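Repro case for the chain-ordering regression, as requested:
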Amino acid sequence: MGNSGFHSEPYDDGTLTKLDIFELYAQEWIPVFTAKPNPLYPEVHIFDFFCGPGTDSKGNAGSPLRILRQLRNYLEKPVAGWNKVRIVVHLFDLSREKILQLSEILTAADWKIPGVTLDVRSLEFTEALKQCDPILTDRGAAKLLIIDQFGVDGVTAPVFRQLIGYPTADFIFFLSSSTLNRFRNHTAIKIKIDELEDSYDVHRAAFAWFKKLAPIASGVFLGQFSIKKRSNIYGLIFGSRNCKGILKFLRVAWEIDSIGGEANFDIERENLHPDTPTLPFEEMRPKKIQAFETQLREGIRSGVLKSESDLIRFCIEAGMTCKFCAPVIRQLKAEKIITCSFRTPNPDNYDIPRLITLNEPKT
Ligand SMILES: C[S@@+](CC[C@H](N)C(=O)[O-])C[C@H]1O[C@@H](n2cnc3c(N)ncnc32)[C@H](O)[C@@H]1O
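-- result from build under test --
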């Protein structure tokens, strides 16, 4: 199917996984900025830069309705900070026709959410970035950017550098990673990924390419998720300058993929099925979890990982959430190899971390 027919067909399973991730992340993100009686920022902006018409051919909700649904659901509970924050949802798409269709849907009472201002316009992505630059670069505004492009052309290297430079902004973009492999020698393809031994790794290779553009000094944490649709592999890339932001993304990723937190298919070709296990799930020990535990244990024992924040960075780099540290910490304590006051690293302590002490071996 060509892209022109995208919204005149039902969303496929891969698209639904992508939309679920957008929605689950929005669900985690909204309370951070609206729940507290004294909100962190006076303004909150959610951008959906490639929003489409709102639904597929069967009326299933697309990204704009899913974002609004999360805001509406959240408002059903008493929310201390809601009225103290200006909340704006920007819904942009190049297609005038799709924006008209979306605007029509949004006239329904269901989508009039108290305290939420809508900015719905037909706007091309790079033009939207230009026009919204004052908001995107405003340190006093929290931002979530959803970039659901077709193909690979929207988020170029300069655009990616812009994204990682925006203060107080989390972003998720979609990428047709298989295209990068298929047309690798074409001059139009600027994202040049390494040769692959396994086509399943194509989004990992794309992620590695973007990661090289974000040196550690940039202070941005990145995450990824691979999505298979028929024989093609696509993916999401997430970025946040806040460790809590990336850990929320990773929680969503593990919620969708309990084997590796990374894909909607068997990316490690392990043939493990959490829903119909041949062994209890605890005993299946996916490769990724085993490798993480081994490296974590070695890192702590060698003294390289000395504090709570070292562990948090190690988890993020490995695409794991903090809870995966717990069995290793527990075992090292039981073996009297370390002393530390926590069971699982807590991202609230990232700036003032608790320490891990290596005990002297008994002679
Ligand atoms: C993958 S679809 C987005 C789907 C949408 N998020 C949903 O949930 O239904 C990509 C959208 O990008 C729009 N588009 C294509 N090129 C664009 C550009 N340069 N700037 C903004 N929108 C663009 C298309 O009209 C299309 O609706």
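Ordering looks correct now. The longest strand covers residues 221-229.
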